[in-house]
Amino acid sequence: MDTSLVTDLFSPVQLGPIQLANRIVMAPLTRSRAQAGGVQGELNAIYYAQRASAGLIVSEATNISPQGRGYAFTPGIFSKAQVDGWKIVTDKVHAAGGRIFCQLWHVGRISHPDLQIDGALPVAPSAIRAEGKAFTEAGLQPLVTPRALRTDEMAGIVADYAHAATCAKQAGFDGVEIHAANGYLIDQFLRTGSNHRTDQYGGSVEGRARLLVEVTQAVLRVWEPGCVGVRFGPTSSANDIHDAHPQETFGYAVAQMDRFGLGYIHIIEGETQGPRDSIPDFDFSALKRAFRGLYMGNNNYTRELAIQQRRIGQVDLVCFGRPYLSNPDLVERLRIDAPLAPEAPKETWYGGREKGYTDFPRLDGSV
Length: 367
Fold this sequence. Notes:
single chain, alpha/beta
C-alpha cells in the first residue's frame, strides 16, 4: 500500500534549520558499549549509521561530566577523546544521509560511589535516596543516599551542560537534547517527591524549574534554538520519581521551553517502557498546545498508533525505541507495513560487542 496517500510520517519535515527526511525518530537507547573513558568508536559508528534512515537519531544518553555518570560503560561528551570518538559516529551517520542529536545527561542521585571520582557520593536536589540499583562495573549495587547540592554549586552544574553542548558541536552533532526525564537530575529538581529544597531551586514550580531554565539558557548560548530539544516524562515514575501536581509542573516547564523557541519537546507518554495511561487524566494535548515547536511523542508506538496520532495532529514526530534495536531499517519496514524482526534478546541490550548490536539484518538480508 502507498502509505504516502494516508500519512505524511514518511515525508520530509523541517526542524529549525534542519530538514529531516521523515517524521520517524530513533529514541535514545542506552547500550553500554563505550570504551574506557566513556569513548565511542567504530563499532558504535556502524550501529548508528545502520539506523541513519530515521529522520532523526537521538543518541544514547551521554554523560556531561564525570559527576553525571550513573551507569558503567556509558559514553561521555566532556573530554577531547570523547569528542573525537563521537566524531567518528557523526561522520558515519552523515555519510549515510542521517541526522543525529546528542542527548545531554546528568543522572543525579541515580548513581553509586563506585561510578564517581574518588568514591564521592552522587548529588541530587535533596538528600533523598531513590529505590533501585546502580549498574556498576562490579554489577548491580543498591543506590545510596545522595548529597544535596549546595546553592553555590548550581552554577557549576549549568557550566557542565554548557561545556558538554560545546563538545557536542565540536563532535559534529546536528543538535542536542536536554534529558529532563526518567528521574535523572533535572527531573529530580522538577518533581516535588525528590526536591525538598528551601532555596531558589526548590519550593514553587518556578523554583523547581530554575535549573532546567538555566541549563536551557546556557545551551542556547552554544546552539540556535531550532537545534535544541528537551525530553520530559510527565507521568513516568522511572527511577522512583513522582510529583504531586504533574499537569501543573510540566505545563509550566513546557511553557518555559516555548518561551525559548526550542525545536522540539520529546514527551514520554505514560510510564517509561510501560502503559501509556499511567495517569489516566493527564492531558498530553495541553502540552502540545502550549508549545509552538515540534511535539515528539514516545512510548509504545505502533505503526497504526503513529499514523492515527499524526492524522489527528497530536504529534509532529514519532519516537521509536526498542523496535530500533533489531530493525535497523525500521523506517522502510513501517513505510511498506512489513513485519518487524523479533525483539532483541534482553541480555544483549546492555554491554557486549557486535552480538545483539550491529548484527541485525535488513529486510533484504544485508547487514
